[in-house]
């Protein structure tokens, strides 16, 4: 019997090793499957990117930094500077713009402005956003910058401020010319800035059709505008943003959409035909909505700490969250943010409501995903001498 048991040892060894190997391979398969939880993606175009604009997180990229002709996607920067000029009080929506010979001479997409014709800032902006009007873009560039050349300087300065390192502008509308280029990554940066800072642009970028009125010596005529972005009709949740096409640029698109609290921006450059650019942007958006979600920290105004007031009528003030912080995570993952509060022990009166007293840092899986100021919930007045003496007296008795 003993000899028989020994002779079976090799069989037992083989069975045991086979079992171990099976377990190892199984665990390896499970590990690989987990690593490939978000499926691979590729698009038909020379350059592409998908981002979440609140956080700026890149969810997909394909050759994102190649410098290519952007065509009319250029006008996102033109629109950004228009809205910025209105916000700064440099121009008003009701201001009248007189169209120059130069602006009226623009080819390509246009609303057929005539020299010396007058249009409001609002109607020219609408024409740029909806119909991608080159003549309207140049007219607005001259109105804001004094000349298109000066406005282009403003465009390049803004691009540098936004970290658009693969960009150089030569005109305000995107017609093909030497040394006028952008990358898909840079387009996503300026698209993000426009949507985040001026969400009211969606009034035009989501509108399929509208009209303006031409007022010339020949009289008044109504001119129809149709949006160049077919995603408005084809893709649920579309909020913009801008198409572009020229012989050099081929077909470009910066498309944005919102679903279930998640906003995405997808950019494609040098797609081979117009249908492909819409299809591939839709594919990227589908990929984002299928695989990612947004989680949020505390809501704006949430009390996070209490700060002492020195020489004030009140003894303490709440420190509240100034801005909401969000993070993009893969669907199915444990979605919870942790936070670290760094706040002052006290603040001297007087101070205004919203005075910074600290900062809160949010983490996801021990990685910082955002931070926000902690500010005073209300203002505080400085105590007078009698009030200070009274407080000292009460504390002494306590």
Structural notes for this entry:
The protein has 398 residues and is an alpha+beta fold. It has twelve helices and 17 strands. It is globular. It has two domains: 47-293, 3-Layer(aba) Sandwich (Beta-lactamase); 303-397, Sandwich (Peptidoglycan synthesis regulatory factor (PBP3), Domain 2), CATH 2.60.410.10. The longest helix has 27 residues, at 9-35. A six-stranded mixed β-sheet has the order 14-16-17-12-11-15, with no helix packed on it. The chain has a five-stranded antiparallel β-sheet with strand order 2-1-9-8-7, with helices on both faces. A two-stranded antiparallel sheet has the order 3-4.
Structural class: alpha+beta
Total discrete domains: 2
* Spatial strand order of the main sheet: 14-16-17-12-11-15
Strand and helix order = HHEEHEHEHHHHHEEHEEEHEEEEEEEEH
Question: Got a strand count?
Answer: 17
Distance between the termini: 91 Å
Radius of gyration: 29 Å
Architecture of the largest domain, according to CATH?
Answer: 3-Layer(aba) Sandwich
The gross shape turns out to be globular
Question: How would you concisely characterize the structure shown here?
Answer:
This protein is of the alpha+beta class.
């Amino acid at each position: 019997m003993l000899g028989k048991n020994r002779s079976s040892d090799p069989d037992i060894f083989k069975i045991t090793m086979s079992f171990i190997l099976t377990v190892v391979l199984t665990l390896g398969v499970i590990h690989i499957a987990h690593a490939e939880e978000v499926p691979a993606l590729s698009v038909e175009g020379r350059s592409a990117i998908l981002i979440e604009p609140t956080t700026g997180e890149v969810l997909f990229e394909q050759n994102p930094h190649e410098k290519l002709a952007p065509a009319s996607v250029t006008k996102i920067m033109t629109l950004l500077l228009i809205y910025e000029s209105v916000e700064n009080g440099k121009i008003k929506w009701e201001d009248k713009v007189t169209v120059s010979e130069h602006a009226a001479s623009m080819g390509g997409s246009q609303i057929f402005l005539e020299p010396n014709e007058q249009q409001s800032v609002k109607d020219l902006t609408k024409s740029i956003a909806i119909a991608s009007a080159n003549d309207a873009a140049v007219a607005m560039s001259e109105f804001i910058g004094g000349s298109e050349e000066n406005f282009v300087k403003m465009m390049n300065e803004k691009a540098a401020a936004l970290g658009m390192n693969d960009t150089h502008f030569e005109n305000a509308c995107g017609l093909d010319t030497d040394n006028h280029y952008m990358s898909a990554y840079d387009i996503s940066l300026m698209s993000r800035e426009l949507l985040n800072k001026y969400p009211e642009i969606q009034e035009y970028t989501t509108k399929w059709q509208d009209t303006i009125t031409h007022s010339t010596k020949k009289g008044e005529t109504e001119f129809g505008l149709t949006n160049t972005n077919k995603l408005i009709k084809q893709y649920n949740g579309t909020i913009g943003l801008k198409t572009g096409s020229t012989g050099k640029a081929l077909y470009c698109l910066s498309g944005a959409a919102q679903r279930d609290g998640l906003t995405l921006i997808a950019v494609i450059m040098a797609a081979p035909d117009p249908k492909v650019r819409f299809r591939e942007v839709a594919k990227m958006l589908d990929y984002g909505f299928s695989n990612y979600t947004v989680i949020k920290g505390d809501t704006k105004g949430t009390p996070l700490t209490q700060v002492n007031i020195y020489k004030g009528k009140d003894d303490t003030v709440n420190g509240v969250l100034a801005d909401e912080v969000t993070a993009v995570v893969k669907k199915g993952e444990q979605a919870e943010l942790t936070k670290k509060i760094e706040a002052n022990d006290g603040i001297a009166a007087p101070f205004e409501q919203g005075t910074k007293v600290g900062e809160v840092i949010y983490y996801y899986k021990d990685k910082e995903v955002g931070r926000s100021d902690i500010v005073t919930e209300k203002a505080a007045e400085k105590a007078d001498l009698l009030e200070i003496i009274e407080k000292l007296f009460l504390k002494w008795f306590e």
